[in-house]
Amino acid sequence: MRFLGVIVWLWLKKLVQLQCWLDIMTRSLQQGFQCAVTVMVVLLAMLIVPDAAWALQSHGPPEGIYVHQMAHVFFFGSLVFLYRDLRHSASKSRGWSYLKRFCLLMLVWNIVSFTGHAVATQLSPEHITGAASYFHSRLLGPMNPTKVLFYVTRFDYLLLMPALYFLCIGLRSLYFSVEREVSQGENQ
Q1: Distance in angstroms (rounded) separating the CA atoms of residues 22 and 100
Q2: Packing angle between helix 94-120 and helix 63-87, nearest 10 degrees?
Q3: Which residue has the higher pLDDT, 40 or 115?
Q4: What is the pTM of this model?
Q5: How many whole angstroms from its chain centre is CA 66?
Q6: How many domains, the chain?
Q7: What pLDDT score does 40 carry?
Q8: Are 71 and 26 part of one and the same domain?
Q9: What end-to-end distance do the CA atoms of the chain give, in Å?
Q10: Alpha carbon 156 to its chain's center
Q11: 20 to 30 Å CA-CA from 183: which of 19, 35, 98, 134?
Q12: Which of 7, 16, 6, 18 is nearest to 37 (CA)?
């Protein structure tokens, strides 16, 4: 079944890259629409009859958590570099200030998430009931500092959601400022 999935993926990739774009750009609108419908049907079929979720790692600990934590360290370094670059930039517009806020919140989120992953490795499965289900698991008492820290770091989305909001409004603000500059340039 995986072989079939690979064949479908390669076919879809080829179809999207070559045929659809050629149809849309050089041929009639009807042929481009037919190509788009074909792509949508294939994507719908892949959603209705899934075979495997290849985005999940298939090996267990400890390699997965090591790689994940290294990704957090790399992301932290990237955010520090971006924030430093934004802070020293010449532009002081609203969009850039929103992007700075995004960087700061993501830096804090990254630290909280990194800490939460590290603390989770210190807890044994018998400390959590319903551990197989992410949404229905509960932390069992008695509470100690490790369990409290694990519990607090599970609220990392309270940092992540505002950060993504600042990213969206920052990019939106930058888009509109560029659009204004272009329209002013055309009017002159």
Answers
A1: 41
A2: 160
A3: 115
A4: 0.65
A5: 19
A6: 2
A7: 78
A8: no
A9: 61
A10: 15
A11: 98
A12: 16
Tokens read off for 188:
């002159």
pLDDT band for position 1 (50/70/90)?
very low
Q: Is-contact 83 103, C-beta < 8 A?
A: yes
Q: What does the pLDDT average to over 29-55?
A: 69
Q: What is the CA radius of gyration of the chain?
A: 24
Q: For residues 86 and 103, is the Cβ–Cβ distance under 8 A?
A: yes
Using CA atoms, how far apart are residues 19 and 26, in angstroms rounded to an integer? 10
Look up residue 68 and give its amino acid.
H
Query: In sequence order, what E strands does 63-184 have?
Result: 128-129, 138-139
Q: How many Å apart are CA 138 and CA 135, to the nearest integer?
A: 9
> 23 is written with which tokens?
């149809």
Which residue range forms the structural domain that includes residue 24?
2-48
What is the number of other CB atoms lying within 10 angstroms of the CB of residue 31? 15
| Shared domain check, 80 and 143 | yes
**Cis status, amide bond into 50, omega within 30 of 0:** no
